[in-house]
């Protein structure tokens, strides 16, 4: 899942105004932000197997530190706790922790059974929406749209940049999503790691958007 996680990040702002959109994006996408780093370090593994599902050629053979249920719970608690110590905002800390956790449950919808529960081996789960190209597009598109709608309802632009920066990001995210869906498979795990790290730019972009918009209840 890609844009669905950003839909969850957008929705975060609806529930608490105090953190930046960039922070909500970071929480919702956290385990996919650190996954490329662990890939490049050789700690986690992915293989390219065209046809493994209708949507992605990636076979997630080993990624317990980022994508096991237990791993994601640890990250959720860690990120919520760190935010609490910095900002002393209990409600927002909980929301950020839940957003980190949301990633795993959204992935659960689409992944074929490759998400570990405890560690690399053992039980792996996934409801397999990726076996249907159309179902994936509909469900993920819906999650993204609802999240964006909630964000638009709870924030408004302070200036022109506040609108154009957001519009630009939405177009950019949809364009990446489409090119991932219809483009050629990546060359190697290393290439996935390198491209994946560019996602940090999306986080910075969201901080920039947030500076040019204001949120209200
Ligand atoms: Zn993921």
Outline the secondary-structure elements.
Elements: H1 3-15, H2 21-28, H3 30-40, E1 45-48, E2 58-62, H4 64-67, H5 69-87, H6 90-110, E3 115-116, E4 124-125, H7 133-154, E5 155-157, H8 160-182, H9 189-197, H10 200-211, E6 213-215
Antiparallel strand pairs: 1-2, 3-4, 5-6
Bound molecules: zinc ion.
Tell me what the structure shows.
It is a single chain. The radius of gyration is 17 Å and the shape is globular. The chain has helices spanning 3-15, 21-28, 30-40, 64-67, 69-87, 90-110, 133-154, 160-182, 189-197, 200-211; strands spanning 45-48, 58-62, 115-116, 124-125, 155-157, 213-215. The mean pLDDT is 95. It contains ten helices and six strands, in the order αααββαααββαβαααβ. It has a two-stranded antiparallel ribbon with strand order 1-2. A two-stranded antiparallel sheet has the order 3-4. It starts with a helix and ends with a strand. Helix 2 (21-28) crosses helix 6 (90-110). Helices cover 65% and strands 9% of the residues. It is mainly alpha-helical. Strand 3 and strand 4 (124-125) form a beta hairpin. Bound molecules: zinc ion. Zinc ion binds next to helix 3 and helix 6.
């Amino acid at each position: 899942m890609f844009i669905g996680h950003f839909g969850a990040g957008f929705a975060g702002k609806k529930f608490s105004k105090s953190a930046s959109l960039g922070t909500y994006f970071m929480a919702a996408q956290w385990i996919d932000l650190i996954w490329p780093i662990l890939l490049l370090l050789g700690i986690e593994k992915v293989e390219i197997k065209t046809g493994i599902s209708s949507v992605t050629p990636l076979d997630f053979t080993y990624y317990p530190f980022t994508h096991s249920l237990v791993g994601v719970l640890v990250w959720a608690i860690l990120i919520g706790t760190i935010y609490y110590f910095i900002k002393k905002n209990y409600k927002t800390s909980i929301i950020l922790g839940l957003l980190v956790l949301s990633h795993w449950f959204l992935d659960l919808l689409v992944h074929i059974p490759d998400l570990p529960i405890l560690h690399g081996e053992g039980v792996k789960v996934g409801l397999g929406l990726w076996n249907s190209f159309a179902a994936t597009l509909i469900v993920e598109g819906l999650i993204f749209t609802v999240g964006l709608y909630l964000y638009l309802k709870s924030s408004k632009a302070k200036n022109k940049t506040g609108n154009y920066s957001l519009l630009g990001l939405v177009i950019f995210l949809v364009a990446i999503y489409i090119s991932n869906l219809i483009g050629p498979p990546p060359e190697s795990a290393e290439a996935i790691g390198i491209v994946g790290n560019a996602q940090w730019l999306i986080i910075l972009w969201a901080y920039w958007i947030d500076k040019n918009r204001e949120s209200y209840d």
